[in-house]
Amino acid sequence: QVQLVESGGGVVQTGGSLRLSCAASGRTFTNYAMGWFRQAPGKEREFVAAIGWSGGSTGYADSVKGRFTISRDNAKNTMILQMNSLKREDTAVYYCAARYSSTIVGAAIAANWRYWGQGTQVTVSS
After folding, report:
1. CA-based max dimension of the chain
2. What are the pLDDT digits (tens) for 6-37?
3. How many CB atoms lie within 10 A of CB 72?
4. Residues 95 and 37 sit within 8 Å (Cβ to Cβ)
5. Angle at the Cα of 75 (from 46 to 28), degrees rounded to 5?
6. Which of 43, 47, 65, 119 gives 93 a disulfide partner, CB atoms 3.0 to 4.6 angstroms apart?
C-alpha cells in the first residue's frame, strides 16, 4: 500500500506560480512511477505530467508543456510539480498518483494508476 499526500495548492493570479508537493509513504518510493492529474468542475480527470522512477523520463500534457515541471527527490520520497505562467483554465483539483512501474508508458490514462492522493485545490484568478 502506498499513501500519497498533496500540498501546496491555493489561490494565485493569472501568470503566477505555485509549487505542488506529493509526499509518499508505505513502499519503496524508487519502485514507483509518479504522476499528476487534475479535475475541474464538471470535467473528467485529465493527465498533467508523469515521471519515471529514476526521474530520467518525464511526460507532459500539451496544455502544460513549457509551463509546468515535474521532478522527484527519491531520498525524501517527494514529488514536485512546479507550475509557472498559470492560466485560469489550470484551475482544478490536482491529484498525485503512483504505480509500481519504472516507466511512464501509458501514463496519460488514469486507469493505469494504482494509488491516488486526496487532491489539492488550485485556483487561478484573473
Report:
1. 41
2. 999 999 999 999 999 999 998 788 889 999 99
3. 23
4. yes
5. 70
6. 119
Cell reading at 71: 521532478
Residue at 97: amino acid letter: A
- Residue 45 burial by Cβ neighbours in a 10 Å radius (0-12, 13-18, 19+): middle
Closest CA to 69 of 18, 113, 13: 18
SS3 of the chain:
CCEEEEECCEEEECCCCEEEEEEEECCCHHHEEEEEEEECCCCCCEEEEEECCCCCCEEECCCCCCCEEEEEECCCCEEEEEECCCCHHHCEEEEEEEEECCCCCCCCCHHHCCEECCCEEEEEEC
pLDDT confidence tier of residue 111, bands split at 50, 70 and 90: very high
Residue 123: strand pairing partners = 11
Task: Give CA angle at 80 (76, 82), nearest 5°.
Answer: 150
- Give residue-wise pLDDT tens across range 72-87: 999 999 999 999 999 9
